[in-house]
Every structure is written in C-alpha cells, then in structure tokens.
Recover the amino acids of this structure.
C-alpha cells in the first residue's frame, strides 16, 4: 500500500511538472500555425490577383469567379475566402488554432462559423501596406455591425485579451504577416494608405 501511494505521488509530481511545459508548447504551436494560415491566405489572394488584373476576389465579379457582389452584403465575409478555393489547399487554413468558438470546415461548403479572419475590403496588391486580412479578435468604439467595421486612424481599436496574449496577426497587401500589439494595429491602420479601413468580419 505504501509503495502504491509513493508511485501515485510521483506520478502527480510528474504531471504537475509536465502540464506547464505542454501549455507552453501549445502556445508556441499556435504562434506558428496562425501566421502560417494567414500566409497561405495571402499567397492565395495574390495568385488570384495575378490571374485577375491585380484584383483580389472582392474586386472581381462573381461572374468571373470573384466575390464583388458580396462586398456590401451582411455577414458574408466567408464568401471572399470561398472565392479563393482553387488557390487554397484546404478550408482548414481559415481557422486560427486558438479560436475555439469556430469549427473547422471539411470542405468548401463553408460559412462564417468556419472562419477566424477578417477581410480588408480596401486591400490592394499594389498597396503593400493595405490590410488584406487578420485575426477577427478586435474591439473598437464602433462594434462591428452586420459583419462590417470601418476604422480610421483616430479610432480606439485594440485586440481582445482572449487570444494571442493581447496581440494579433495582420496580413498585408504584399503578403507579409506579422504579430502586432494594439499600438502596432493602430499604426498599421494609419499606414494603410486609405482614410477609412473597411473590414468584413466573419
């Protein structure tokens, strides 16, 4: 009986030592996976643009394989990603590993519930600093309504604390992805090259 108690105590100590390490490994994995997903989205958008006169899907008519007609339609952010299904290997890349409120899609019959990233409706391949996409975890004075949020450099916008340790990932028009804090987010909005940044949220 004493030996059994000693073994159980040793196992509890080992578990106590391993849990923090596993948590750190999971956080590191998320820090790698999320930007990789956004990089794939950026590459897909640029491939699409190269085939469509340097226009992203939301700048091309649905008759030509784009999603332009959905630009002003409520809660239709997923349509812009769906238009890149030929360029994206799988819809799984549309989900941030830390986003437990959304579900992974198994095919391209997707909805907003399968997407963790916003779409920058003013993004342009010719404007390297335009906001192409990024984490949806934003809070602002003006809450997203009907799936849209318009931001200017004067708006108080920040990342929520729920994901990525008060940081978020941004995908820019040149395909680069970076993790920024809330101050970096506001800087990115100021340097985006447009007076008002219009974002479509899933």
């Amino acid at each position: 009986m004493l030996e059994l108690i000693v073994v159980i105590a040793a196992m509890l100590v080992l578990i106590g030592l391993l849990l923090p390490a596993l948590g750190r490994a999971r956080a590191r994995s998320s820090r790698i996976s999320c930007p990789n997903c956004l990089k794939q989205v950026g590459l897909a958008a640029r491939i699409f643009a190269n085939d469509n006169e340097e226009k992203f899907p939301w700048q091309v008519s649905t008759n030509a394989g784009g999603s332009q007609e959905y630009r002003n339609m409520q809660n239709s952010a997923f349509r812009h990603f769906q238009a890149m299904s030929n360029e994206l290997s799988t819809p799984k890349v549309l989900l941030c590993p830390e986003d437990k409120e959304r579900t992974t899609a198994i095919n391209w019959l997707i909805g907003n519930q399968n997407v963790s990233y916003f779409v920058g409706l003013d993004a342009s391949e010719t404007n390297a600093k335009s906001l192409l996409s990024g984490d949806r975890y934003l809070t602002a004075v003006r809450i997203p309504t009907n799936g849209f949020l318009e931001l200017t450099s004067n708006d108080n916008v920040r990342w929520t604390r729920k994901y990525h340790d008060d940081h978020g990932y941004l995908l820019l028009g040149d395909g680069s992805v970076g993790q920024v804090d809330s101050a970096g987010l506001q800087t990115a909005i100021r340097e985006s090259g447009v007076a008002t940044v219009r974002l479509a949220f899933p």
Q: What stands out?
A: Residues 30-200 form one domain. Residues 22-32 have pLDDT under 50 and may be disordered. Strands lie at 117-120, 131-135, 138-140, 148-151, 157-159, 168-172, 177-180, 197-200.
